[in-house]
Specification:
The complex is a heterodimer of chains A (302) and B (368). With 302 residues, chain A is an alpha/beta fold. Helix content of chain A is 33%, strand content 28%. Chain A has a six-stranded mixed sheet, with helices on both faces. In chain A, a hairpin with a 2-residue loop joins strand 9 and strand 10. In chain A, helix 3 packs parallel to helix 5. In chain A, 43% of the residues are buried. Chain B has 368 residues and is mainly α. Chain B folds into two domains: 233 residues, no CATH class; 100 residues, abc type-2 transporter like domain (abc type-2 transporter like fold), CATH 3.40.1710. Chain B has a four-stranded mixed sheet. Classes of the chains: A alpha/beta (302), B mainly alpha (368). At the A-B interface, helix 3 of A face helix 1 and helix 8 of B.
Chain lengths: 302, 368
């Protein structure tokens, strides 16, 4: 059941079109991920959904309330975690929680109960007296999430919550999101990490304010056009330069190896001579299944 | 109302935990009071006076004693060579030389014509003017004492009399005005900085998605600063009355009432500034420029408005401190009440309402 409906959203900053005719919906009990390069318009979309910016045209509805008209009714339903840490560094963990609980109308007793739960999943209990500014990156994000959770919202909007967070904390963070999904919340999240997309129910590729593709991770992989090959050599900059000079193929760093894409129905065999010329043994190249990252790169490249 | 309380309490925590704003709020007013009370001293005292007494009578010595006992004049530290009065001034041994030709005693007994001479060092115009007027006062008092009661000197006599602040103490004049400056500084500067900080650090983004109205945010944020500003006002008042001996002739209630209106004007300015800037740094600079500086320079606090160029005179009309300084000086020094202050009061109220209206219209719940 869809709880967030965004249709034909436009947002410009002067001559710059940040969001260009963007539509999507988010359902209860679902994690929807937005992924795209910096400046693609993710933050503008999130801020518009959270009523923080005026948009030029389009419509945003949350639980059938219009954001531009009935935002006060939407606020209690909404939990927002901005991209930059936006809690008070000079207040302690508990004071930050208490402040937001108060703004959302929790009574002292309700807060004490909620606090226990939040400390349980976030592991922040032992640090409840520490100033928020003195927390590590991962703990800061968990505190921010806790503050966004304190009033049991039905819709979560999380703008790059795991950027700059260590891998272990990232996994813990996503475990929390999965729990929220199980409780029936709608979760809209943006991330620069492709591996996190695999954990999402639905993914939207966004580039220059426009939607490039949308679907489940599995569906998106299917949208890859062409062949993917893996070259088991280190992607040194010299090697990448040489590879990029070969007409007809595209090469990308892929971890400690290189992914080579051929177009349409072309295969790598047609380029063996070119590869040998720059000193690459074609035996080191094996065909592989496209991954979500390959699809993403292909969409961003077009 | 609950939510206003949460925001106000949070703001108090910020203030208590930030040594910078605490220092601005408590230390600077005290420092400024001391500075304006002592350092900016326009009173001319301790004028060094050398005396050339050719009369050498009981009467002439009595006049000299009157000069030195007046509190305005001092004997030179070194005994000057009296043969060359001009050199005394040039060497800086004295600011002025009083020359009494013989015949003084005779003249004061017979009420005959007599002329005293005085050389005054005009290098410091203030001191020179003060020396001239003080010596006339001393002379006048001496003659008055000598006249039989009911007897008047023939001819026209200029009678000077200073009303209100009759001691002509600068501190009596400056300290009440300082309250106006400090209230403006605390209210406008700190409010604009506290709102700018929420924008700069991104906390505004989180705050604005919480179910609070702009009015609740603003009221919650300014309450602690109103309290702080009033505390500062009382601090300076107590300091002014007890330490500098500034009189308090009028009604405390009336003063606090106008103080509150003035604070609202200052807070509105602060909020207005915060809507125009994105960082604390800029907010601070802008607040200095728009509120503190005009309150010092264009309010009649130090410089008289009527002596300003026409443009600045017009600008001074929209400086709230202009009206509040007249009100506070009137109440403290003259004991004025509404019957004479209504003009200033009306201007202050109108200005406050206009500022408040603009500020609340400009402050909105969007970040871009």
């Amino acid at each position: 059941m869809s709880i967030v409906e965004v249709s034909n959203l436009y947002k410009t900053y002067g001559p710059f079109e940040a969001v260009d005719n963007f539509s999507f919906s988010a359902n209860k009990g679902e994690i929807l991920s937005l992924v795209g390069p910096d400046g693609a318009g993710k933050t503008s979309i999130f801020r518009a959904v959270c009523g923080l910016i005026k948009y030029d045209s389009g419509q945003i509805k949350i639980a059938s309330f219009d954001v531009s008209r009935d935002f006060e009714k939407i606020k209690p339903l909404l939990g927002y975690m901005p991209q930059t840490f936006s809690l008070y560094p000079d207040l302690s963990v508990e004071e930050n929680l208490y402040f937001y609980a108060g703004l959302f109308g929790l009574k002292r007793q309700q807060f004490d109960e909620k606090k226990k739960l939040l400390y349980q999943f976030s592991g922040l209990g032992p640090f409840h007296n520490r100033h928020a500014g003195a927390l590590s990156g991962g703990m800061k994000q968990k505190l921010a999430l806790s503050c966004a959770l304190v009033h049991d919202p039905e819709v979560f909007v999380l703008d790059e919550p795991t950027t700059g967070v260590d891998p272990l904390s990232r996994r813990q963070f996503w475990d929390i999101l999965k729990n929220l999904r199980a409780e029936g919340s709608a979760i809209i999240v943006s991330t620069p990490y492709i591996d996190e997309l695999e954990l999402s129910d639905r993914v939207i590729f966004i580039y220059r304010g426009s939607k490039m593709a949308e679907g489940t991770p599995g569906e998106l992989v299917q949208k890859f056009v062409g062949q993917v090959y893996q070259l088991d050599l280190l992607p040194t900059s010299e090697r990448m330069q040489q590879l990029n000079k070969i007409e007809g193929i595209t090469s990308r760093r892929f971890g400690a190896s290189v992914h080579i894409y051929t177009r349409g129905s072309h295969t790598i065999e047609e380029y063996h001579d070119d590869l040998r010329r720059i000193g690459i043994d074609p035996d080191l190249i094996t065909p592989v299944q496209p991954e979500l990252e390959d699809t993403f790169i292909q969409f961003m490249g077009n | 109302m609950d939510k206003v309380g949460y925001i106000a309490r949070k703001e108090v925590r910020h203030i208590l935990r930030d040594p910078r704003s605490l220092m601005i709020a408590i230390l600077i007013p005290i420092l400024m009071t001391l500075l304006y009370g002592y350092a900016i001293n326009l009173d001319t005292k301790n004028i060094k006076l050398a005396v050339l007494d050719f009369d050498r009578t009981v009467d002439s010595r009595e006049l000299v004693a009157k000069f030195y006992n007046s509190g305005y004049f001092l004997e030179p530290e070194t005994t000057p060579i009296l043969s060359d009065p001009e050199r005394i001034l040039k060497s800086g041994q004295a600011h002025a030389v009083l020359i009494m030709p013989s015949g003084f005693a005779k003249a004061v007994t017979n009420f005959s014509q007599y002329e005293l001479g005085m050389l005054i060092d005009g290098a410091d115009a203030n001191v020179a003017a003060a020396t001239a007027s003080y010596s006339r006062i001393v002379m006048g008092r001496f003659i008055e004492d000598r006249l039989p009661s009911g007897f008047e000197l023939p001819g026209v006599r200029i009678s000077q009399q200073v009303l209100y602040n009759s001691d002509l103490e600068s501190s009596h004049f400056f300290v009440p005005g300082l309250i106006a400056v400090i209230l403006m500084m605390i209210s406008a500067l700190l409010t604009s900085v506290t709102i700018a900080r929420e924008k700069e650090t991104g906390t505004m983004e989180q705050l604005l998605t919480s179910p609070v109205s702009p009015r609740q945010i603003i009221i919650g944020k300014v309450i602690p600063y109103i309290a702080l500003a009033l505390l500062d006002a009382v601090l300076i008042l107590v300091f002014a009355v007890l330490h500098f001996g500034v009189p308090f002739a009028g009604s405390v209630t009336l003063l606090l009432f106008f103080g509150l209106i003035y604070i609202v004007a200052a807070l509105s300015l602060g909020i207005l500034i915060s809507t125009l800037v994105a960082t604390q740094q800029v907010a601070m600079m802008m607040a200095q420029l728009v509120t503190v500086l005009p309150s010092v320079m264009l309010s009649g606090y130090i410089f008289e408005i009527k002596n300003m160029p026409a443009v600045l005179r017009y600008v001074s009309h929209i400086v709230p401190a202009r009206y509040f300084i007249r009100i506070i000086r009137g109440i403290m020094l003259k004991g004025s009440d509404m019957s004479v202050l209504w003009g200033e009061a009306a201007f202050l109220v109108v200005l406050t309402v206009v500022l408040l209206a603009i500020a609340s219209k400009r402050f909105q719940l969007k970040i871009g």
